[in-house]
Amino acid sequence: MPETLFDDAGAEAAKGQEPLAVRMRPRSLDEVVGQRHLLGEGSPLRRLVEDDAPMSVFLWGPPGTGKTTLATVVSRVTRRRFVELSAVNAGVKDVRAVVDEAKRRMGMNGTRTLLFVDEVHRFNKTQQDALLPAVENRWVSFIGATTENPFFSVVSPLLSRSLLLSLESLDDSEVRALVDRALTDERGLDGRYTLTEEGADHLVRLAGGDGRRSLTYLEAGALVAGSPSKDPVEITAEHVERAVDRHAVRYDRSGDQHYDVISAFIKSMRGSDPDAALHYLARMIEAGEDPRFIARRLVVHASEDVGMADPSALQTAVAAAQAVDLIGMPEARINLAQAVIHISIAPKSNAVITAINEALTDVRRGQAGPVPAHLRDAHYKGAADLGHGKGYRYAHDFPGGVAPQQHAPEGLTERRYYRPTQHGAERRFSEILQKIRGVLKSEK
């Protein structure tokens, strides 16, 4: 079973052979980049560390956000014996062996153990249940790392005994800070390399908020750039491209490219061209665009340009947006693509956005008469004396669930905001609405 003791002299000999991302792991909480919501003064994790209290914690977040790093730093700071298991290849026997050894050491000399289980969501129910006695009796301090929602992947008894901490993808400035530190730190490239601005932009885009990936790509770029002699070697975007085999997409997330590509993306879906829409989706994904931004545009477009012509398009778009939050990238690219295809090939109608915009225009022009008396709230004492609710017709008492009565304020009874098209499901809705409006109008 993997075990790390931080006073192990052999660790020094292995330095330099480790990947850059491993060498650059923070040595204290103050060196951790990102996750300020977890590491600020008075935050739960910092309190647990500074008070050196027994703990059981789940770290939930996308890859490369620092789950293993935080577990390692916690062990360094608290000086606990650190044991790491991977749920990919560990079983109940391994868990019990760690717990038994932890109990033995605690009884003999008071040494406490921090058990870190990576990808804990891969443990089945029996394996997770094996952790319960150790967590409940605090024989070990437990940290479980997962990229999947613990509410779906972790058994309730274990989750209820633990603190759940959500980690977020690093933003561009945080990734850049990691890269800059690795370029100059003696544990990293130690000033032997520099990185061009274009190379840094490309590397940050490729990282996609994943700190580990950014350092892996930086190290690969340095290998392509060549060994330094007297002067530092410059790493360019071309070096990163060759190392990672990923072309630098020319895309500025705050400039013209951002607006041009998203505009083309929306107009391709509106124009019922799924192939073009998928192309622009791929460009945004490859350039590191925030998938939540893409998902939000899909949700808007599903109502703005499809609407009631295919009401299920909105359901698909919302489901894709939820999938982005639930499983993250890169897997969520599939859900985004499904929504793009659905919206692209769906029948189109802008009747929904036209309806709400026209209604808002009337209200802003002051065309907002008093609510008809029979529709006003009649539940409070004295309302009946004011005539509130008098003459109201309960829709369910009438054939078809539609009562002939006036709902709009005076002056607006003839306004028709929603005008269904003859596209898709709206053809049927148009027929239904015509009948409904006929019944409503018969009140007069």
TrEMBL record:
<dbReference type="GO" id="GO:0017116">
    <property type="term" value="F:single-stranded DNA helicase activity"/>
</dbReference>
<dbReference type="InterPro" id="IPR008921">
    <property type="entry name" value="DNA_pol3_clamp-load_cplx_C"/>
</dbReference>
<dbReference type="GO" id="GO:0008047">
    <property type="term" value="F:enzyme activator activity"/>
</dbReference>
<dbReference type="GO" id="GO:0003677">
    <property type="term" value="F:DNA binding"/>
</dbReference>
<dbReference type="GO" id="GO:0016887">
    <property type="term" value="F:ATP hydrolysis activity"/>
</dbReference>
<dbReference type="InterPro" id="IPR003593">
    <property type="entry name" value="AAA+_ATPase"/>
</dbReference>
<dbReference type="Pfam" id="PF16193">
    <property type="entry name" value="AAA_assoc_2"/>
</dbReference>
<dbReference type="GO" id="GO:0005524">
    <property type="term" value="F:ATP binding"/>
</dbReference>
<dbReference type="InterPro" id="IPR051314">
    <property type="entry name" value="AAA_ATPase_RarA/MGS1/WRNIP1"/>
</dbReference>
<dbReference type="InterPro" id="IPR027417">
    <property type="entry name" value="P-loop_NTPase"/>
</dbReference>
<dbReference type="InterPro" id="IPR032423">
    <property type="entry name" value="AAA_assoc_2"/>
</dbReference>
<dbReference type="GO" id="GO:0000731">
    <property type="term" value="P:DNA synthesis involved in DNA repair"/>
</dbReference>
<keyword id="KW-0547">Nucleotide-binding</keyword>
<keyword id="KW-0067">ATP-binding</keyword>
<dbReference type="InterPro" id="IPR003959">
    <property type="entry name" value="ATPase_AAA_core"/>
</dbReference>
<feature type="domain" description="AAA+ ATPase">
    <location>
        <begin position="53"/>
        <end position="169"/>
    </location>
</feature>
<dbReference type="InterPro" id="IPR021886">
    <property type="entry name" value="MgsA_C"/>
</dbReference>
<dbReference type="Pfam" id="PF12002">
    <property type="entry name" value="MgsA_C"/>
</dbReference>
<dbReference type="GO" id="GO:0006261">
    <property type="term" value="P:DNA-templated DNA replication"/>
</dbReference>
<dbReference type="Pfam" id="PF00004">
    <property type="entry name" value="AAA"/>
</dbReference>
<protein>
    <submittedName>
        <fullName>Putative ATPase</fullName>
    </submittedName>
</protein>
<comment type="similarity">
    <text>Belongs to the AAA ATPase family. RarA/MGS1/WRNIP1 subfamily.</text>
</comment>
